[in-house]
């Protein structure tokens, strides 16, 4: 679901990886559809690798997005421009066990902004990938 979707430090919005070259990757903005090169010196984070601190461990972004989607019946989340207290209260409903000391309001804003962007672009798919027959056979044994 989040494979190939990137956040780039210093750039607003989300990007989709389009191609790789020897010393850079080519990404396309989800907002403007413009393609730009991103060099190895840039801090690039794949959304599928991002997790939020909780008291029980880390929760991956896809699971948080799924919780938001269930809460909102597939609709938009709370606006990331809401007050800090509103954002914390909303996030507590979605991820009740999140670590309030290590998860900042700015992190919550990013999560909600990313969710709303992906939801708007109809890029959120929470259906489980089908296991291959070999994987099913292995898990049954």
UniProtKB/TrEMBL annotation:
Coiled-coil positions: none
Pfam families named among the record's database cross-references: DUF5606, DUF6852
Ranges for domain DUF6852: 50-118
Domain DUF5606 positions: 2-47
Name used for this protein in its record: DUF5606 domain-containing protein
